[in-house]
Fold:
Amino acid sequence: MTPPDSTILIDDVPVPFEPGQTILEAALEAGVFIPHLCFHPELGAHGSCRLCNVIVNGRNISACTMKAASGQEIEVDTWLGESAQAYRRTLVQMLFVEGNHFCPSCEKSGNCQLQALGYDSEMMTPHFVEFYPHRPVDASHPDVLLDLNRCILCELCVRASRDMDGKSVFALAGRGMASHIVVNSPSGKLGDTNFSATDKAAHVCPVGAILIKRVGFAKPIGQRRYDLEPISEEATPRREVEEAK
Amino acid sequence: MMAAENDVVARVLRRRAEPTQLLQILREAQEELGWISPEAARAIASALDVPVTRVQSVVQFYSFLYDEPCGRYRILFSDNITYRMLGNRGLFEHMLKRLKLKRGEVSADGAVSVDLTSCTGMCDQGPALLVNNRPVTRMTARRVDEICDLVRDGLPVSEWPADFFRVEDHIRRAGGLLGPRYEPGSALKAAIAFGRQGMLDEMKRSNLRGRGGAGFVTSVKWESCRNAPGADRFVVCNADEGEPGTFKDRVLLSSFAERVFEGMAIAGFVVGAGKGLVYLRGEYQYLLEPLEAKLQAMRRERLLGASICGAQGFDFDIEIHLGAGAYVCGEESALIESLEGKPGKPRIRPPYPVTVGYLGKPTVVDNVETLANATDIAIHGGRDFAGRGTRHSSGSKVLSVSGDCARPGIYEYPFGVRIQQVLEDCGAGDVVAVQISGPSGVCLTPDEFRRQIAFEDVPSSGGFMVFGKDRDVFNVARNFAHFFAHESCGFCTPCRTGTALIRDALDKIADGRGSRYEINELMRLADLLKRTSLCGLGQTAGNPIRDTWLKFRPAYERRLIRGDFDPAVDLDAALARAREISGRDDAGAHIDTHIGAKA
Structure:
């Protein structure tokens, strides 16, 4: 079928879009889930995690950076007919093994997007040999814990602190596997910055790298966001979209 | 901060005080200070009014910037597969032994450190090294001893024998670009005579395609940039020749710089840019002074500056920026980031640099050789140029030939030359493989030697590495895998982690512990990287593995264990720390882990 103007086809489902929207934005607004980690609706695209990779008119491209355009035919669940799940699972596994992720002891468990995407992609094991990098924990701040063992380098905290809080508390330094977050203070410690638990940057981490102190485990593991509903079903008028088809 | 350090930082900042010049500032400060101390980083950040993390992110990104002291003599052995074939590792070990150092360690007196670095573009006169960013070529054991003596005596590098630093052009075969005598200014005058539109039409007629590897039609790039909205435009010359085994831009810049610079000015003339930037790789810092002198001479001759060759309104000048050891900066958007004083991480494209480039302005980024070719087109016209080479690949290609051959060096051929022809000309016999275009290119076997260098057959950015019959192609692939893991910028997941996983899988195979399982994993990773990586580095990083597995299977198979799988975790190695703590090293403190490895 030919979609009308201002509509794209995502896995054969027509999805409307506003001019200037990316494929991912249009999809999420319509309740069509495309896995993603480094995108945030208030901070826009980053293009680094590559989980939202889709096929657009026969080519792999990240849905968060590609502008929606009339007539695009987009494959999310399959890539050129082949299941995309194994590819996405590998990307999630890569993020797991390059850091130190121990879900059972992590306060973010159940609210963690990386963990949720692990479930979504039916990841059963980390698969690869763990790198076990040495990454120190920074507990110097009175209200916020910075545990870079769990950092996935999405730079959401970097962008939120710079663009929304106007503080530039964080930056990404290093190259390749040595990439890591650095903190803007003479000591390099979070406690020596003007970072505040009310900053936007304290609340955008998709994993458990930035945690507010003294509120841990208020809600028991098992009753949290992605414990109750898979990440692919959150905010999902997808069924409505399909019915409208 | 010490007074001296303060002075140096202040002096550098008097010359340059824009955050976009951060990389140049750090490089110049380090030139005098030896490293960027936390105090120096803070002083620079505060003067530029940027967070100190911005300075850290740049220092920690580039291989040639140091946030730890690294010795008054910083010695870096150039390390790619062809240098290894010339015995660089033996010389490296010999120097470490003589200086009683470990790799990367600074001597107790703070005098010297010795390490390895990616290809420095001296493959035709290796083994080679950099000492304080100056290349020393034709290394021998004797020269290692001489250098160790000079270091021991504390003689400044500027007083070392000039012969150490001699770099040869080794032009073995010249064509239209390297051959004819060149009258400086002749191309500019011809372009002015054509007029801006006329010169663009000649470029179209020539069908010149980018020589950096991608082969994009140059006139399309120029026209898009010219037509992009905005007042300021830039021309950038990509001289970040980092592809291992490629050194033709070094020769073009050493002996044909006026053609490159005039090519930039012609591009500026056509697109309406007033400023050109050369991004010169840090490994070629030794060329900075002669290139600056050449620019000065061209300004005096009115070949640069205001009203070039007397043409009213044709104003164009050129500035040289130095890189600092990061292969990924050869990618045009990473290069632009680096020009802006940031870590060289590729941008999301579109928008492409022709519309949103340097400082967000429309920018043409062209390879050194592409720009030099523009002078040929100006002088002889587009039709003449299009008449050379093949139908889809006009003009000539300059190849950097290295490896197992009698005459390594620079060879210029019309496009369409067969691999076999190049091998005959360079004196290579009994060849098992040729790697075209460096690690990100393609590996060819003898049954493919009738193929042609051309965009429609075997495209090439210039690298041509020859491997003789005694070479083990597995080692080539493994060397390339280490290279990509070292050079990945780390921005996107598949390339950052995938290149490290590929490297580790090949190391495991090299260690005699790999099985078919690793091969399957390598193919799967190569496929994922190709599909999902952000830029060409990640997209091509799996190529040499896939190529060599498909074409040189025995090189892998003889290393594989017959069992299905051998765990990657080495239990015995995992006990090393426990042995260290307990002070034990007896048989009971070891576990025999290689179960099945000897099967």
Summary: The mean pLDDT of chain B is 95. The radius of gyration of chain B is 25 Å. Chain B touches chain A through 41 residues (CB under 8 Å).
